[in-house]
Amino acid sequence: MTRRRRLSSLVVLLPLVPLLAACASDAPQDTMNPQGPISRSIDNLFNGVFLVAAFVFVVVEFGTLYLVIRFRRRKDDDNDELPAQTHGNTKLEIAWTIVPAVMLAVVGFFTLITLFDINRRDEDALTVQVTGQQWWWEFTYDTNGDGKFNDEDVLTGSDLVIPAGQDVNLKIHSNDVIHSFWIPALNGKKDAVPGREHPLRLNADEPGTYVGQCTEFCGLSHGYMRQRVIALEPDEFDSWLEHQTEKASEPTDGEAAAGAELFATQCSGCHLARGINDDQFAEQGNGTELLVSGNAPDLTHFASRGVFAGGILDLWVDQDGDGIVEHDEIGGEFDRGNVEAWLRDPPAEKPMDAPALPDPGGDKIRGMPDLNLTEEQIDQLVDFLQTMD
Ligand code: CUA
Ligand 1 in contact with 216 (CB < 6 A)? Predict the structure, then answer.
């Protein structure tokens, strides 16, 4: 094969790479595998528009090819004169103005219907505030239904738990820079912008775990900012939410008790564990507001989550090996090694800005600093964290 032929076959084959990648099976972030009514509505629109576009493509390409071949210059044609030149055909011009206009009007009509459909909101549905943080997602459930999101509500991180088959209204905003929330199986993307509140509705047909990731570049660990939606049967969801409103109970003996003490000195400047350090902060006059509107996850029910550290590390062993820690695997085999590695040196697990150094002109620390804990302290803290289910 000559070099030129090799090069041209490469040019022909290269576009096939993304095409083949699109055929991957078991791709959890497949945008063409809707698993709820909202994403299905978007998918239906896409399929319709794609069919129209494919039809236009085939007609135009084959028409062009036909004309090129049919009217090509033939070998025995030695007439050097141009054929008779014509200009303008009113009927054709009217036709190719009207036909595309009608096609676009049809596409526009169905687009509008889809837009109205996906923007519909049931104000009585469960409302969750979604907060983008560098680099993890915080979820605040309006548990008492007062329309406010504050320290009286349930807070969780990385895993958004919802009831299956029901609408959930999200109010998306950011605590620092612009992020973007995206669970492809359930809906499109929505930017998380500081100072703004963007609505998004989620609805999953079936119980399951649906994964996504931040899709707006938001700094050093943008690529390490994931989110998951865990949909549960409605009654299972109710008991989950009920459990999340409970406070943690402080362990009284063993390594876990030592871990709780360490938590108070090492971690409670940023993390909240209700029932353990919420009183302490009220006494110090800081209140808990600083913490819950702060930059670190509420750890009260840490061990009830499937993942941690912005969704990049599994908290429980993925028993069936499908790459996703599902709800029924939470509470199974604790992935101690991951929690230890994180406490040993968080910035080594996830690139973060200037460990332990405040921003110039601000009081925010990006990500979790290396606390220089000893192995014994790490052991105690992990024991303590495991009790917070
Ligand atoms: Cu958050 Cu990218």
Answer: yes
Q: What is the pLDDT of residue 123?
A: 85
Q: Is the CB of 292 under 6 A from ligand 1?
A: no
Q: Quick: pLDDT tens for 110-147.
A: 999 999 999 998 888 999 999 999 899 999 998 877 77
Please indicate whether residue 172, judged by its CB atom, sits closer than 6 Å to ligand 1. no
Six-digit token string for 11: 């040019």
CA distance 279 to 289: 12
Residue 367 near residue 246 (C-beta atoms within 8 A): no
- Whether the model clears a pTM of 0.70, i.e. scores above it, the answer is yes
Q: Which two tokens stand for residue 157?
A: 């991180």
Question: Considering only CA atoms, which residue is closest to atom 1 of ligand 1?
Answer: 179
- Span from the CA of 353 to the centroid of ligand 1 (angstroms): 14
Is the minimum distance from the CB of 190 to ligand 1 under 6 angstroms? Answer: no
